[in-house]
Amino acid sequence: VYDACHMGHARAYLTFDILRRIIEDYFRYEVLYQINITDIDDKIILRARRNKLLADFKAEHAADYAAVESAVGASLDAKGQKLDKKMAALAATELPADAPSREREMHETEKAAAALKKRQFDDIAASVATIREVAAGGGGAASSILEAVCSDAGVASTSAAALERELVEQTVALNEELEAARDALDKSDAAKAKRLAELTQQAARLGSLLARLKALAAASESPIEALFRFAGSELGETLDAEKGSTVTDHQIFNAHARFWEKAYLDDMAALGVKDPDVMTRVTEYVPQIIEFVQKIVDKGLAYKGGSGSVYLDIDAFKTQGHHYRKLSPFSGDTSAADMAEGEGELAGEAAEKKNPNDFALWKSSKPGEPAWPSPWGTGRPGWHIECSVVAGDILGANMDIHAGGSDLKFPHHDNELAQSEAYYGHHQWVNYFFHAGHLHIKGLKMSKSLKNFITIRQALQEHSARQIRLMFLMQPWDRPMNFSDQTVGAAKSKEAQFKNFFGTVKALIRSKWLDEEVGWRSREEDRALYDQIADCQSKCHHGFCDNFNTPQVVDALSSLVTYCNNYLSRPPPAAPAVYLVQKAAVYITQILKVVGVAEGADDIGFPVSSAGSEAEVEGPLDALTEFRDAVRSIARKKGPVEEILGACDAVADKVQASAPAAARLSDQVAKVLADFAGAIRAAAAGGHGAVLTACDHVRDDALTAIGVRLEDATREGQSSTWKLDDPETLMKEVAARRAEAEERAKQAKAKAAAKLQQEVDKLTAGSADPFETLKPDLQLEGGALSQADVEAWVGMQPPPKAKGKPTPEWLQASR
Known about the structure:
Blueprint: H1 7-26, E1 34-37, H2 42-60, H3 65-92, H4 101-153, H5 160-183, H6 190-221, H7 223-243, H8 250-271, E2 278-281, H9 286-298, E3 302-304, E4 310-312, H10 314-319, H11 336-343, E5 360-364, E6 379-381, H12 385-395, E7 399-405, H13 409-424, E8 430-436, E9 439-441, E10 444-445, H14 456-462, H15 465-473, E11 481-482, H16 485-510, H17 523-545, H18 550-568, H19 578-594, H20 614-636, H21 641-657, H22 665-684, H23 688-705, E12 708-711, E13 721-724, H24 727-764, H25 770-774, E14 779-780, E15 783-784, H26 787-794, H27 808-814
Parallel strand pairs: 1-2, 7-8, 9-11
Antiparallel strand pairs: 3-4, 4-5, 5-6, 9-10, 12-13, 14-15
Helix pairs in contact: 2-7, 2-8, 3-4, 3-7, 4-6, 4-7, 5-6, 6-7, 12-13, 15-16, 16-18, 16-19, 17-18, 17-19, 18-19, 20-21, 20-22, 20-23, 21-22, 22-23, 23-24
């Protein structure tokens, strides 16, 4: 917990929440679910120190732009040199022809990650250069920069806000093309590889332009604040290298961890993740950790290095019959990259290890790091030891399931296994490991170190928690997946399918179906529906049993919804077996509750009557729907205004009976009905078009604002259908439809203008005088056409009224 949680973390958190729910709520196992908060490690130490030093520097130089600019410049120079050195080293590294495929894959990933960091650094450098220009030249420089960005983007001069919208639109379109290119990439196909490289370069160019534009906006307000915003991370690294050893107050590290721990818990609540049964913190277990390490030392399986750090002795561990690297088997030495991942950024000297594979159980603290007294001197827990100690305290010497991201197999989980087996003296600390697949974005694992992440809170501004959960359910939980517009869009479509189906079934149950015959009237179709329900139940069960195959489960539920929709859409006289359809909807709801998509599985106590229940609003919403259908039908058929006014009079009694008295949804519906009746009465004087506009307004604005979805009937004689939904979701849908309609109108207008220009170009081609080309041989009452007449005509003005039949020339020009 050293920073905001991103969607890569959500991939793991939601995955394990889903698996836990299936185990507990479907298979009915008793689960004791523990999570551990790592509130002290290298990343927390570095981030807390850098934030503290950056805050102090900012307070000291709050009004000294020159000092801040100088410090930022030096920091960027140092960071740039470091990145260039890294890029050069990777480029110079040639793997042997017989290098293992895993090593080659890691090398390619490392090169791609370094290239991404270099592009990000170039964007930061461009942003700082922009800030410097604005600080030096003021408003005039800002205008020049905006013109330059417009020119580089190939966009006509415009405002900064309009340019940003244009660049964002270009970026979205380019990202879609990039995703398709990556999916279709065949490294043996030079043309595809070249196209992917070109698209990547275009994306980098757009990213740089957006960075400059954002820096321009920030610098126009405050150049100093802009420098801290765009280069604060790099400045913090420099300050830490110079003064990190001076930060010694434990409270600085604790406060940082507590802040992000609270943010993590808030994010989990927002995602609908169930609370754990037990939550532990590393800092509350330091005495137990010291005892744990001491026992391993006493067994001769760990040793103290010259710095005071304590390492697990891998050779001694193997000598006692244990196996090392069970999850990621490998017989050679641990790579430098894996060792750096396992020991952290503040690792001690590797030279004091007996074997390069040995890892730290206890780290000697250097100046600027939190420290606790121990038999080996002041120090702090190693990264892996915490999990063994806290899990052993809560779950004992053996646990059924241990979970984490797939990147934790080695070194983290393998090292946990080794130290736990060394402590307990057995060979199986964990029975099963669940490793969630990575979430990739633009071809690379989403990661804070790569700065290619989207925080959970940012994602929840665009997508609902249900949509994010569905997105993960539709992918195998233990394989990598891409976070893209396509994967999110598929989840939103699936959510809409379920939501519309539930609304349809609720409307069916509310209908007067009991006034007709009941039972299986369409025996073959009804029995076939029952068989489909049974088949769906079987597929869901087998899916859950088959390594938690949630994509199969979602597909089975979706197929049942499609079948039910087709069953319900049969034309009269076919009638549905309502209880059978209800059975399908209830089963789908139950499974969606199991995986956390539908709410209610975690409620405590007896259900409380909701102000937004269908039963409570049925009366006023039915009255509103019937009234709207009536006046809308009259208006569409251009019927007498008196009939519209008569419908208003007829609904008046229902309006008074439902007079609003509180803030319940039923009262809100009653108010909408009253307002709508008044609006229709007023609109009737304006004609049928005004009535239809009022009908659209109540559907798209008034009802959506209170969470009511109103769907117009698709067949003559049918009634409109209302469904309860989330107001924010409905308003977003309406806004999106209106935006699409405006865009279509804009495109149609542009297409018409382009077509007109083509016609004019054809008529005027090769002529020095357009008037001579367009001038038709036609006599008017006042004589021949004047040049003003033709100019008005070409300018889309109505042509002058001709006497007699128009000539072919006139008709050609008119076309």
